[in-house]
Write a structure and sequence with these properties.
With about 525 residues, the protein is α/β, with parallel strands linked by helices. It has helices at about 1-30, 35-45, 75-80, 85-100, 120-125, 140-150, 170-175, 205-210, 235, 240-245, 260-265, 275-280, 325-335, 335-345, 355-365, 400-405, 420-425, 445, 450-465, 485-515; strands spanning about 130-135, 160-165, 185, 190-195, 200, 215-220, 225, 245, 315-320, 370, 375-380, 385-395, 410-415. Residues about 25-30 have low confidence and may be disordered. The structure holds 2-acetamido-2-deoxy-beta-D-glucopyranose. Pfam families: Mannosyl_trans3.
Length: about 525
């Protein structure tokens, strides 16, 4: 009897414990995962209400390449955009408040991700590597092409495709096709953010995609960027472990307003610490001690963000070490179109989000590495113009570039002009005489295979119903992307004839004429 009683008590106790644990897990755990509004509310608290600076330039900053013979002097950069005193005051105050918040105990986030330490979600996130793209509508199509190409390079890194709104969710694409490529969709169900119901667009999606990605180590890849070799090694590279943020240089010289430095509380003194490319071409090279604001590029002075600007088509970031950098980049991007894009670029080349990441890291004094090798223009000699025609940007392997800048491999191609939409790519493939064009002619030797052939193979396989693999009779139903992407189905009605008359014959021509017979087998570095 005594044992029976104890057993009953034990059983009741066990039931209470189980119930309590269950209750705790239901109530406590969900509370400890955090809402993405915790990232947006502090931004909203520090929005700036002064009139927008967008398109208020006195003159748009000139566009000079980093190797052009030109210095941007302080006086010039101060006279492109006039920032009214009251606007500058408000920007300064709000920026200071926000940075203060970032370092205060109120900022309780553990990473630039809606997960909290000590939860299951955290364990899933911690130490994971992955790649994120932005999809939705026509961007799902080019993201898909890049993912196909990624897998051809041998990459095993998982992928997420950020879909900005539920209306752009293509079920078959997300649930059947992507999983075959170790990829999945991240659907953004409520695009209204924080207590002010902010709605982001365009460039700002990048910050959201980075925030929502499930990986501590997230590589962001623009949908019009194609990897040419397997990029997986970057995640484990010493270079990345040491810096936690890898960025790539743009072609353009920096045109940031001196007012930007005042606003973010950085004192730029007249002490020259670097030579510009123009200096280095002089003989003798003028000593740094002779540098003044009147004779030297403003961004060669102490505490400025060094040249060149950043090409943010690809970046790799540790969302834990760089949580504050990303929070500040979020701030610069939410306030970007009205204030920070004009301040950082002043209407110069490629105004947008591209310089917000290094600006944020610079302001917070957190490390980042900018690939040591400039990007290269990829293109061909256009016979009609008798001139080089640039069709894409080559983004180099930053590890190789440190060891041997001269021979660094091109790791990604940013297919900016044209992107692989049928309407934009079609006019680029042949001269008016009908003669075919190999668009990326000047990069194949570096890459080791035929980039035109590879990318056209990917494009035609999924866009043209009558695509046939080389030497094989294949059935179109297997690959045509019109069965899972409404965008492709729609476009195909317009471009069916272009498939027969141009895309497929062009592919045949590339196959026949290529110097790189093994093109479809290559990829890994
Ligand atoms: C990313 O940062 C976290 C936090 O500092 C660190 O524990 C982790 O090792 C870092 N990951 C890599 C790949 O460096």
């Amino acid at each position: 009897m005594r044992w029976g009683n104890s057993f009953k008590k034990l059983a009741i106790l066990a039931a209470v414990v189980v119930f309590a644990l269950y209750h705790w897990s239901r109530t406590i755990l969900p509370l400890s995962s955090i809402s993405i509004n915790q990232f947006f509310d502090p931004v909203i608290d520090n929005l700036v209400h002064a009139p927008s600076l967008k398109d208020t330039y006195i003159i748009k900053a000139k566009q000079f390449g980093i190797n052009d013979d030109h210095d941007f002097l302080r006086l010039y950069l101060s006279s492109c955009l006039l920032v009214p005193d009251s606007t500058k005051e408000e920007l300064t105050l709000k920026h200071k408040n926000y940075v203060k918040y970032l370092f205060s105990s109120e900022n309780t986030v553990d990473a630039y991700a809606p997960v909290r330490k000590g939860t299951k979600a955290w364990n899933d996130y911690k130490g994971k590597n992955g790649i994120v793209y932005i999809g939705g509508g026509k961007y799902s199509w080019i993201s898909f092409l890049s993912i196909v190409q990624l897998r051809k390079t041998g990459s095993k890194t998982p992928v997420e495709v950020f879909i900005p709104s539920i209306e752009e969710y293509d079920q078959k694409f997300c649930e059947e096709i992507l999983p075959q490529y170790n990829a999945r969709c991240l659907v953004f169900k409520d695009p209204f953010l924080g207590k002010r119901r902010l709605q982001l667009t365009g460039y700002q999606y990048k910050m959201l995609a980075l925030l929502m990605s499930s990986y501590e180590n997230t590589m962001y890849v623009d949908s019009d960027v194609n990897p040419l070799h397997n990029p997986d090694f970057l995640f484990t590279s010493e270079l990345y472990r040491k810096n936690g943020l890898l960025l790539w240089p743009d072609h353009w010289a920096r045109t940031t307003s001196p007012d930007f430095y005042d606003i973010v509380g950085i004192d730029v003194r007249e002490k020259k610490v670097r030579h510009s490319n123009k200096d280095l071409k002089k003989d003798p090279v003028p000593p740094l001690s002779e540098g003044t604001f009147q004779n030297s590029d403003f961004h060669d002075f102490e505490n400025t963000i060094p040249n060149p600007t950043v090409e943010a088509g690809v970046l790799l970031v540790n969302k834990s070490t760089h949580v504050r950098t990303l929070q500040l980049a979020l701030y610069y991007n939410v306030l970007g179109p009205d204030f920070y894009y004009p301040l950082l670029t002043q209407g110069g080349a490629g105004e947008g989000d591209k310089d917000t990441f290094n600006a944020a890291a610079h302001v917070l004094d957190e490390p980042y590495h900018l690939c040591a090798k400039q990007f290269r223009w990829i293109g061909y000699h256009n016979k009609d113009k008798d001139a080089f025609d640039a069709k894409g940007l080559g983004i180099h392997d930053p590890v190789g570039a440190l060891a041997d800048e001269e021979n660094a491999k091109v790791l990604f191609i940013h297919c900016s002009y044209p992107k692989y939409f049928p309407g934009t790519v079609a006019p680029e493939l042949a001269y008016s005489t009908g003669e075919h064009i190999r668009m990326y002619d000047n990069v194949n030797e570096n890459v080791g295979y035929d980039v035109d052939l590879r990318l056209m193979e990917n494009f035609a396989k999924y866009f043209c119903k009558n695509y046939k693999a080389a030497g094989v009779q294949s059935k179109y139903e297997e690959t045509w992307a019109g069965t899972f992407l409404p965008y492709v189905k729609e476009e195909y009605t317009q471009f069916e004839a272009t498939c027969e008359e141009l895309f497929l014959p062009h592919l045949e021509w590339l196959r026949k004429e290529t110097k790189y017979r093994n093109t479809n087998k290559h990829g890994s570095l």
